[in-house]
Amino acid sequence: MDPQARLSVEKIIALKRYEQPPPGYFRLLPERITHRIEQGEGQSNFWETWSAAFSIRPVLAYALGLTVCGALTAGIWYAPRMDQSTGVATSGNRWAVESFRTAAVDAPPSGERWLGSTNPVMAPRNGESFFTMPEVHAIPVSLYLGN
Amino acid sequence: MLGRRTCGNPLPITKAELEKPRQALSIPEPNPEPASQPEEDLALVHRAQKEDTAAYDELIRRYQERIYATLYHMTSNHEDANDLTQDAFIKGYRALKSFKGDSSFYTWVYRIAVNKTINFLKQRKNRVLMSLNDMDFNAEHDPDLLALVSENTPRRDLSLAELQEKLNAAMQKLSEHHRMVVVLHDVQGLSHEEIGEIMDCNVGTVRSRLFYARQQLQAYLTEYL
Q1: Sign of the CA dihedral B30, B122, A21, B41?
Q2: Are residues A44 and A86 in the same domain?
């Protein structure tokens, strides 16, 4: 940038230092603000406190957004994936996969797909179908974990 | 008084004014340092944290002019600057408990005001309504400004008020971040480091934004340079 032009730009910008608010404005401003504060204006609830923190440091908002997105992505990535043929979780969280596998072993081969997929507590035993059982037995999850 | 929008009759610069001695007045220097000591500020902040509004009132009095001026130059609108200044100080009071003293109160409250203003300007993107303040009486005696508007422009009858309007229009064409850097550095006189701290960016970014913004302003105001 040409130094002469730069100097001229700076001089023109300096014109702004002459712009002044109406006389007496700064005498009244603090009173107006403290009056509004005493009226309880700007009382912040939980969300407003967060937003205030973000206003001061926008980088916090970006960091929080990234963390939430990362957690969601990781959750989706590590969630148990279902084998379409057996309805059994085949990868992801090891504890969940093992639980579902155990449930599937206990389940009858007749293939009610719901058995191994969602609720091991409701799994019928001894090869009986859920629909033929006189009553549903609730089985504690700890049974599947071997405790 | 020059540039009085309510009258709508800005005075042209006369030949007599141009011939006034050049030593009379000069462009007011910005006051880069706040007038108070950080220790005093910290003591006032501690009192304000205990809901002592009188202490906060004193903090407002210390920084209101600089905060208002920055917001006014950003918005080119007195009413908007007034609202934003009040809102920034109120928000500062409510957030005061989170103030740990890592930076000065001055920088901290500036950061609130700056972020609030940038958000406001993004929302009002398509509505620029200028409501400019009057220029100080001294402006019409400033030899540098008189020279600028008389010698370098094709229109000899250009008034300072017109130049003020052109300048503000050019400023409004800059992006919010570029405008903020120009206001904080060239008008308010803050250092690159202070601006970096206030805008939460590094000094290199501040320098490059300032360089680009000045280039843009030069292009917009080429008629007057």
Answers
A1: negative
A2: no
Q: What is the ipTM of this complex?
A: 0.71
| The two three-digit tokens of residue B187, written as one number | 């008008």
Q: Is B86's Cβ below 8 Å from some Cβ in A?
A: yes
Tens digit of pLDDT per residue, chain B (225 long)?
Answer: 333 333 333 333 344 433 333 333 345 555 555 555 778 889 999 999 988 889 999 999 999 999 999 999 999 889 999 999 999 999 999 888 888 888 889 899 999 999 999 999 988 776 666 666 666 656 666 666 666 655 555 554 467 778 888 888 899 899 999 999 999 999 999 999 999 999 989 999 999 999 999 999 988 888 777
Q: How far apart are CA B151 and CA B93, in angstroms?
A: 49
> Of A42, A62, A77, which residue sits at a domain end?
A77
Q: What are the CA-CA distances from residue A88 to residues A85, A144, B52 (Å)?
A: 8, 15, 64
Nearest to A33 among B86, B134, B168 (CB): B86
Chain A residues close to B85, C-beta within 8 Å: 29
Domain of A115, in residue numbers? 81-145
For chain B, domains (ranges, CATH) are: 15-20+33-224 (1.10.1740.10)
